[in-house]
Amino acid sequence: xxxxxxxxxxxxxxxxxGRLLAQVIEPLGRGETAxxxxxxxxxxxxxxxxxxxxxxxxxxxGVGAGRRALRPHLAHLLWMELPHEESWTRGxxxxxxxxxxxxxxxxxxxxxxxxxxxxxxxxxxxxxxCEKGYETIPGPAGxxxxxxxxxxxxxxxxxx
Length: 160
Description:
alpha/beta; Rossmann fold; two-stranded parallel ribbon; 3 helices; 9 strands
């Protein structure tokens, strides 16, 4: 799994596409181990390189993963159905007072990003958090077939 929080930075909230392609997507596409420097949000600098070996499935997680420039490289795009305010509240709670100023800028940047380059319309699946687990439903871009295993449980997704 690759968290986009490791790729983005204070200076490049959404301007990291070229670096992600060069350091991660292209090497993995050639069957090679990718190397990227994860960003430390507290020290505000990139750390030592981290290896990401090629695997049959690599989950790219985070805001911006479904952007136009990356979609050709994705097998499937899943969209987490979560109201903006709830996701921002979770982030603020996770990051604490230390990152309060960051979150003020983040909300604006995220809104601009999705205005210019929406992801949800291209989602293969929509994912909703339920009381226990998650529910997946077909996204705007396609439908789920019986041969697609999209849950971690033994049965179908729980209904919320």
